[in-house]
Amino acid sequence: MHHSHRAAVNRFIQFLGFLIVSTALVTTAHSGERAKASAKKQQVNSAKSQRAVPARKVAGSGKAVRAVAKTAKAPTRVAFVPPRQSFGQLAGLHEVSDPLDLKSSVALVVDQDTHEVLFRKNDHAVLPIASLTKLMTGMIISQASLPMDEPITITQDDVDTEKGSRSRLTVGTTLTRGEMLHLALMSSENRAAHALGRTYPGGMAVFVAQMNAKARLMGMTDTKYVEPTGLSSRNQSSARDLATLVNVAHGDPLLRELSTSPGYEVAVGPKTLQYNNTNGLVKNPTWDIGLQKTGYISEAGRCLVMQTQIAGRKLIMVFLDSAGKFSRLGDAERVRNWLEESLPSLSAPLHVRTGSNG
């Protein structure tokens, strides 16, 4: 009896121990699952917080505003693009110094009446001439006896695809031939000049051929044209040839008038466009300019040709490949100052050692 009672107690103790162990195992398993779930939830919340900050209400407003977390932007790196050198710079023409310290690598000053050379610097170098081209363009149009009141419309063909230059003459704009010529000579309007060549009898090819034929007829052996605007660097000439061109062009009253016009207005649809002369010296009352033309493309540098009077003498000035936006005008002033001081007693012209661009 006593033995049976002790056996029953032992079985009860074993059962109680088993129950305690089982309960502990279940509790541990549930705790592990809760810990995993909590960790996963924290990861999700952390990822969300990196994308955006929870919405908050602004005082005085019923709307919730979500503030976006700011991130630091990486610095933008712009590649340095060195300026394109002109043909004159590549040929070393700017290394040639002169007593007047001109910024143009090529210069020529000639007495229009006597053809005496008063100043020369690299005057035989053949370089791109940019919009000085338009002086020949204007000469061909002026001498062609075409009706100046004939309307010409700008087309897509007149848009510059070589240099990407801008123009206020949009495709579809219609002006008279005379207005196109005025803008081409005075303000160096590229689309106007191109349209003049495109609408020439026979088309552009015939027009360019006429330009080159005229140059040969005038003895401009260093000169070649491939188009009427000067945007192509293949339009090339020398200072000596350009002096010849200025001399002949000065004999045309229309070219004198249009090239030296200070400003001009044209009506384009409901708008009136104001154009100004690209040569600021024409508005300077101290200058007496009979004909002029400016030009610029990177391959040519800043260019300027003029017919003017200084100290009672008619002169032709040519400046090519000038470095600096206003340096060609500064060179003209430097030459004028020198001439005003020197012409009365000038016994010998200034001849500077010349270079060649091949």
Structure commentary:
The protein has 358 residues and is an alpha+beta fold. The protein has a single domain, classed as 3-Layer(aba) Sandwich (Beta-lactamase), CATH 3.40.710. It is built from 9 helices and 14 strands. It has helices at residues 2-51, 87-90, 133-143, 177-186, 190-198, 204-217, 239-249, 253-259, 327-342, and strands spanning 56-57, 64-65, 104-111, 117-121, 127-128, 151-153, 174-176, 236-237, 263-268, 271-276, 289-297, 301-310, 313-322, 350-352. The strands form 5 sheets. Strands 11-12-13-3-4-14 form a 6-stranded mixed sheet, with helices on both faces. A two-stranded antiparallel sheet has the order 1-2. β1 (56-57) and β2 (64-65) form a beta hairpin. The longest helix is centred in the N-terminal third of the chain and has 50 residues, at 2-51. The protein is globular and about 55 Å long. The N and C termini lie far apart (135 Å).
How are the strands of the biggest sheet laid out side by side? 11-12-13-3-4-14
Q: How would you characterize the largest beta sheet?
A: 6 strands, mixed
CATH topology, anyone? Beta-lactamase
Would you tell me the structural class of the helices and strands?
alpha+beta
Q: Which percent range describes the beta-strand content?
A: 15-25%
Q: Write down the overall mean pLDDT.
A: 84
Number of strands: 14
Task: Indicate the radius of gyration in whole angstroms.
Answer: 41 Å
Helix content: 25-40%
Classified by CATH, the class is: Alpha Beta
| Secondary-structure element string | HEEHEEEHEEHHHEHHEEEEEHE
- Principal-axis shape equals globular
N-to-C CA distance: 135 Å
**Low-pLDDT regions:** 20-33, 46-69
The number of distinct helices, counting runs of at least 4 residues, comes to: 9
By CATH, the architecture is named: 3-Layer(aba) Sandwich
Summed up, the domain count is: 1
